[in-house]
Write the C-alpha cells for this entry.
Amino acid sequence: MQKNNVEQTRLKEQYSGKRNWLKWGPYLSERQWGTVREDYSADGSAWDHLPHDHARSRAYRWGEDGLAGISDEFCNLCFAVGLWNGKDPIIKERIFGLTGSEGNHGEDVKELYYYLDSTPTHSYMKHLYKYPQNAFPYDDLVRTNRQRTKQEKEYELSDTGLFSNSRYFDVFTEYAKAGVEDILIRITIHNRGAEKAALSVLPTLWMRNLWSFGLMKQLPSIKAGETDTNYSYVKASHESLGDYFLWFENPGRLLFTENETNSERLFGLPNKTPFVKDTINDAVVSQKFDLFADKKEGTKCSPLYELQIEGGGSHEIRLRLSGSFFETNPLKEDFETVFTSRIKEADGFYDELCVEDKELKNIQRQAFAGMLWTKQYYNIDIPRWLSGDPGQPAPPESRKRGRNSNWLTLNNEDIISMPDKWEYPWYAAWDLAFHCVPLAMLDPDFAKNQLILFLREWYMRPNGQLPAYEWSFSDVNPPVHAWACLQVYRIEKRRAGKGDTDFLKKAFQKLLINFTWWVNRKDHNDNNVFEGGFLGLDNIGVFDRSTFIPGGGHLEQADGTSWMAMYCLNMLDMALEIAQEDATFEDVATKFFEHFVYIAESLNRMGEDWTGAWDEEEGFFYDILANRDGSYIPLKVRSLVGLTSFFATLILDRGRLKNVPDFVRRLEWFRTYRLQNQFYIVIEEMKDNEDIILSLTPRERLERLLTALLDEKEFLSPGGIRSLSRIHENPYSVEIDGAEYGLKYEPGESTTSLFGGNSNWRGPVWVPMNYMLIQSMRTLSQYYGLSIKSACPADCGTLSNLDQIADDISNRLISLFMPDAGGSRPVHGGNPLYQDDPHFRDLVLFYEYFHGDNGSGVGASHQTGWTGLVAELIDRVYKR
C-alpha cells in the first residue's frame, strides 16, 4: 500500500482539479525537425524537407525543440539551454543526429545526454548533457557513417576521441517547482578537464510561432524589465497563457530576436527584419553584437553568460520562471531552500517506490526519470496539415492523396509519452501501451489517461482502427491496448488497495470497436486465422509482411492469430473483472470466451483437410503462406512469431467465477457441446471449486516450446530471450513463385534496409516481448505450480519450475544494466568511457533493443519508453 508523501499529495491535487501541477513539464521535443508533421514536401521526404541545418533558421509549425527544455502544456512558452564552446560553427541549441539516409543503420542520435531524475509532477527534474570542449564533429559523423556499410558498426560521438583526457563539460540542468507556475532553474557546468576552458551559456526563453499560421490574434512578446544590482528579468506576455517573468543573474549581454524564419538564408528571399530565429546564433558565433544595441524585446530571448571555468572547476547559473512578479531578488532567499526540499521529497518518493539495493535502485530511478522526461507535447491536425495554413504556401495537391490522407478525423494536441524524444519524437500506439506499465507505478492516473486518450474520437478512426504513428497512421501494430489497460488497472489495485473499474468500463466500450475492426479487416478467410501485416516486428519475416505477398496469396500469421487470441482473453478478463460489480458485463464475457476457443482451434488443429500453424515434428508454430491455388507453404523461421502463443494465457479463478454464475453455466455447456461433437477444446479438465486455465498452447506443446525457449543454442541469451533462434546462423531460405527469400540470425544491427534498417528483429533481445513472456510464465506457474518443470538453461541438468524460469529471464534482462566485477555494464558494449571515467560510471542508457549475444545496447539509445519496463521487473523480482 502506497504512503501519502508530499509528491503523492501533489498528484492528488492534480487529479482532483485542485492545482494543475502538470501545467509545466519536460514537454519540449528533442527533435521537431525531420518529422512528418513538419513535412510539406511533394514526395513525403520528411528528413530532407526540414533537416538539422534548417532547424536553427526555420520557424516550426507544429511544435518546438530544445536541449534539456520545458514548456507549458500547450507549448506556447518554451525554455531550454543553449551552449557554445567557442569552436563550433553553430550554437548547441538542439540535439544532433543522422537522418535515415545518412546513417549506415538508419537515423541515429549522436550526442551524450542523460535523464537523471524527475518526480511524476515534475516538481524536481535533473538532466545531464556532455558537451565537448573541442569542435563538435558534425561533418565527421555524417561522412564516416555514410562511408560505413550495414555490416559495420555505427560511428558514435564517443568514437571520435573528443572525450579523451576528460576534455568536456558536464552541463546539469535542474528544475524545482516552488508552485504550479513558479519554476526555479539551476544550470551547473563542470569542467571535467585539467585546463581552463571557455563556455558561453545561453538560457533561452521563446514563444512558439503561431502567429505566422493564423492561429493568434495578438503578437506575443518578451520584453526587458528593470535591472537590479545582481539580477534582471524579462516579461513574457501571451494572449492565452498570460504574463510570465523570467528572472536571472545579470549576464554579460541580454539578446532579443524573433522566432521567425530566416527566409534569406533558406530560400534566398528578403527578410522583413534582420531579427530572425538564428540571429542570436550568428551573433554569438561571429562575436558581433552591434545589431542588438537597441533591441529590448522580441519573441525569443537569451541572457548570454561568457564563462572561463578552471580545470576541475564549476559554475552555477540561477534563473526563475514565474507567473508572479517579485519585489526582491527571487534567486537568493528561498532558492536553495526550495531545491533542497524538492530533492528531499524526490528521494522520499523513490525510497518508498524503489528497491533498497543501491545499484538496482540507480537503474530504476534513471529508468523512471527517462519515462517522465519523455513526455512530449504532440500536435497535428490532419485536415489542416493536408490543406495548409492561411498566408502560407499551399501544400502540393498530391498531399491530399498521400500519406495519412484517409485520417481526416485525427486531430491531436496532447502531452503524450514518446518512445524516444529524438529518434521517435512521435507517438507509437503499441509502444505507448508498454510505457504505461512502469508509468502506472509512478502516476497511475496519467497512465490511465494516456490509454483512454488513444480510444477517443480524435485518435481512433470511426471504423475502430487505432493510429500507429505519423509515418503511417494506418500501419498495424499488435493489439496490446487491452492488455495494457489490465496491467495498469492491476498495478494501481495492488498499490492502492482498490481497482478503478470505471476506467476499465471506459476502455472496454471503445475496445469493442477496435476488436471488431481487427476481426473484420484482418481475418482473410473468415476462419479465425489472422494476418495483420508486420505487426511491429519489422524485419522478422523472410519478406516484408505488410506489403505485397509473394505469389499473390496471403499470409496466415502465427503471431497475428496469437495476438488476437490474447486480445480475446484480455477482453474476457476485463469483462469478468467489471462483472464483479456490474452483472451486465457477464454476458459479453461469454462472447470472448467462445471467440478465443475458435482462434485456438485454428492455430492448433491439424488434419487432412486443415493446415495449422503447429509443426508436430519440429514442435514449433510457424507462419503459413496460403497460395492462390489453395496450396500452403509453412515458413519455417524459428522466431518470436512462434513464441507469441505463450501470451494468450488466462486463469479463470474461482474467486471471480462464483460471482458470475450465468457465465459458468454457458462455459460448461459450450465445453460439453464441443466434447460431444469432437471439436477442439481448450479446457482440458474442469473440477468443482478449482481454477480453470485458458491457454492458446496446450500443455504438451507448451512443454515442447519451453525446450526451444530455454536452449542457449536457440533463444536463451545471457541478456534475455532472442527474437530469432540462433540456429539461423545457418541461413534459412524458401522459394516462392520462382524467387528466393530468406534470412539469417543477426544479433546486432540489421544488415538490410527493410523498414529503414534502423531496427532488427532477427536476433536481438527486445525487452517488451521478454516482459510478456515472463508474465505468461508467472500466470502458467500460478496454475501448474511444480507440475511443469524444465531445464533452464536447457541441458543444464537442473530442473526449474515456471516461476523460477520467469525469475531467470528477468535477471538476465536486469543484468544488461548492472555493472560486473570490473564496473562494466553490458548495455554500454565495452565502451571504456563508462568503465574508466568516474563521471560516466553510474550513467545508464535504455536502448531500443540489445545484442543477442553480448547484451550491448542497439538502436535508439534513449528509448526508455518500453525498455523502462526493467524498472517494473526489478520491483517484481526484488521487492516481493
User: Anything to note?
Assistant: Confidence is low (pLDDT under 50) at residues 606-610.
